[in-house]
Hints:
Blueprint: H1 5-10, H2 20-38, H3 44-54, E1 57-58, E2 63-64, E3 68-70, E4 76-78, E5 83-84, E6 88-91, E7 96-98, E8 103-104, E9 109-111, E10 113-114, H4 119-123, E11 128-129, E12 132-134, E13 139-140, E14 145-146, E15 151-152, E16 157-158, E17 163-164, E18 173-175, E19 180-183
Parallel strand pairs: 1-4, 2-5, 3-6, 4-7, 5-8, 6-9, 7-12, 8-13, 9-14, 12-15, 13-16, 14-17, 16-18
Antiparallel strand pairs: 10-11, 18-19
Helix pairs in contact: 2-3
Amino acid sequence: MERSEKDKMLAGELYHPSAPELQVELExxxxxxxxxxxxxxxxxxxxxxxxxxxxxxxxxxxxxxxxFYCDYGFNIRVGANVFMNYNCVILDTALVTIGxxxxxxxxxxxxxxxxxxxxxxxxxxxxQGVAVTIGKNVWIxxxxxxxxxVTIGxxxxVGAGSVVTRxxxxxxxxxxxxxxxxxx
Length: 184
């Protein structure tokens, strides 16, 4: 039996993002995002309940300030006491894990969606997801971008506007484009 495009996506294999089954998931997430982002004037407990409806896991006292944007939602795991500021984007075609006590500034973008480097394969419309893991007690400054496959270790700091193209060791501070370790 042939595997579904969603199963391929979740396994980190090449898949067709335009498959009807994935379009249904994207539409469901878009409807949820409309409700979530419309709740901007509501108190934080309302946001938390809405997050629990769609995200894969939501720790106690996690706060993602609307507006917030994602592809699917169910691939996002947010730990306890996570704070994510306004206008963040998570392209969650693969698992995104954000550890407890992490702080994420406004307009941060976290990407798991990746495209083939081979031009013919890329032309075919295939893509794949590569998981992103952000440790505990991490601080990601506003406007930073985290690329597919990156792991950011516990207690690390990512400077505002940085583009994180490779793993960040625990306790390190990285800045720039591409982000480079400046201490730790």
